[in-house]
Specification:
The protein has one domain. It contains four helices and no strands. It is an all-alpha fold and 122 residues long. Helices cover 79% and strands 0% of the residues. Helix 1 (3-33) runs antiparallel to helix 2, helix 1 (3-33) runs antiparallel to helix 4 (101-120) and helix 3 (72-94) packs antiparallel against helix 4 (101-120). This is Integral membrane protein. Keywords: Membrane, Transmembrane, Transmembrane helix. It comes from Cellulomonas persica.
């Protein structure tokens, strides 16, 4: 692969990282804002789906671009957490009576854990 192609793949990966983190920021912010009156904020589902899709795309770009060998176990852990957060958000939107402060705390906590795994697990 040429250095120009690698540069393009690296740029694409970095753009996906930014979108991925912004998705998680929307999930965390939207969840924390509604802790007093427990409900799922409108944009939280969009943030969760953005984080989920960009995470999957990021792994694909890393693999296609042969940028480095991703840690498959770390990716699996992050994917499971992302799926759990997304499921909690979907259920919370469909059944708003189930949403409590603890429910929102689970979403916020799992979101923080997912970001921490990304940063701390090397």
């Amino acid at each position: 692969m040429t250095s120009r192609t690698l540069c393009g793949m690296e740029l694409l990966k970095n753009l996906l990282v930014v979108l991925h983190l912004l998705g998680w920021a929307v999930v965390l912010g939207g969840t924390l804002v509604n802790m007093r009156t427990p409900k799922i904020a409108q944009g939280v589902l969009h943030g969760a789906l953005t984080a989920l899709v960009t995470g999957i795309l990021m792994v694909g770009v890393i693999e296609m671009g042969d940028l480095y060998e991703p840690n498959q176990i770390k990716i699996a852990v992050k994917l499971l957490i992302a799926l759990a957060v997304t499921a909690l958000v979907v259920v919370g939107q469909r059944r708003p009576e189930k949403v409590t402060t603890g429910y929102l705390g689970a979403i916020a906590g799992l979101t923080v854990v997912n970001v921490a795994v990304a940063v701390l697990w090397r």
